[in-house]
Amino acid sequence: MSSWFDRFVKTWANTGVSTDPSDAQANAGFSFLGAAPPSVELFNAMFKWNDQKDTYLYNQMASVFAWGGQTASETNPNTLRDAIIAKQRIVLTADTILYVDVAGNDTTGNGSIGNPWRTIQYAYNYVLNWLDLANHWVVIQLKSPGVYAACDFQVAIGNGAIHLTGDKLNPKLYIIRNVNGAAVGVQQGVVLHLSGIAIEATGLSAPQIGDPGGWGLIVVRAGLCFIDAVAFGNCTLSQMIAAEGGVIWPMKKNATIIVYGNPLTAGHAVAHSQNAGNVVLVSMVATFEGARAGVFVTATVAGVVQCYDFTYTGNITGKKWTIWANGVLNGGGQSASLPGTLAGEISTGGQVI
């Protein structure tokens, strides 16, 4: 390293004697000295001032270097530029895959297949903070089978779409689990495509607002979630719920779901809609594994479940539906053929059509 580069944070005459010139002398420069040579003290002060100013500016740049993950270099004239670019939003020019893995790291990872992050939440936050999707897809790919932490997609991306996926042929191997709350949350206008994963969640059986209820997939406040090849395991409450204008929708015709777990409290359903939520199970194909207990669908407080042209294997040991408080089940005239060993129940303004 050159001496001049090394002295960016060092001051001339830091152990010598210096005498600061007055403002008038500094403004006039050396002309005020006439023919006499300037004193050593004045020279020291002048160069000390220059070094102090350089140090101030260098420290400003050094903070930007560190912020952008760069190291100052004597031979690289682009370090400051690279640091700034590193902290700008990246405008995508093509669809992008970001990787999350059970063995990944949110601190040292970068989302590549060779250096994935650990949590879905970190990947989503990265997209939210640093990417301009420019009408492209971002795929958050779960790299390996295992159990992943819960995630909440709470702010809309705007000009693109996110697809969270594991393995559509083996969704039960890629589990998103929460032991004290919802497993996957979609809200505030977020559009999420969900496939190839399993969902499990536990929590309070009768949560109030803000409490950690054990919903599997919860879509609220105008969130929209498209699903295909999603497996639903044990959940304290319903495996999926739409509320407050949230919508759950099949990703395509003949989209599939697997139900391999029970709601862990009596009376709750595989699919539940309330407060103007909408769960659409039209033209879906479901597999119910084992002896599933409980209600198939419930709707309340202007919630709507649409379920017709629905085919399934296996069954649920319990009611086909419970519809109350102005909830609606749109069965397309096929409600009697829905899963369940007991007839449905309607009360207090509920409708089945």
Strand residues, percent = 25-35%
Figure out the total of helices: 5
Radius of gyration: 31 Å
The share of residues in helices is 10-25%
Classification by helices and strands: alpha/beta
What does this 3D model show about the protein?
- By secondary structure, this protein is α/β, with parallel strands linked by helices.
- It has 2 domains: 3-84, no CATH class; 145-352.
- Helix content is 16%, strand content 33%.
- The chain contains 5 helices and 27 strands.
- The strands form 4 sheets. The protein has a 15-stranded parallel beta sheet that branches. An 8-stranded parallel beta sheet has the order 6-9-11-13-16-20-24-26. Strands 1-3 form a two-stranded parallel sheet.
- Helix 3 (40-67) packs parallel to helix 4 (79-86).
Topology:
Elements: H1 3-6, H2 23-28, H3 40-67, H4 79-86, E1 90-91, E2 96-100, H5 120-130, E3 131-132, E4 137-142, E5 146-149, E6 151-153, E7 161-165, E8 174-178, E9 184-186, E10 191-201, E11 217-220, E12 224-235, E13 240-243, E14 247-250, E15 256-259, E16 269-274, E17 278-280, E18 285-288, E19 292-293, E20 295-300, E21 304-306, E22 311-313, E23 316-317, E24 321-324, E25 328-330, E26 345-347, E27 351-352
Helix pairs in contact: 3-4
Provide key terms for this protein.
353 residues, alpha/beta, 2 domains, 15-stranded parallel beta sheet, eight-stranded parallel beta sheet
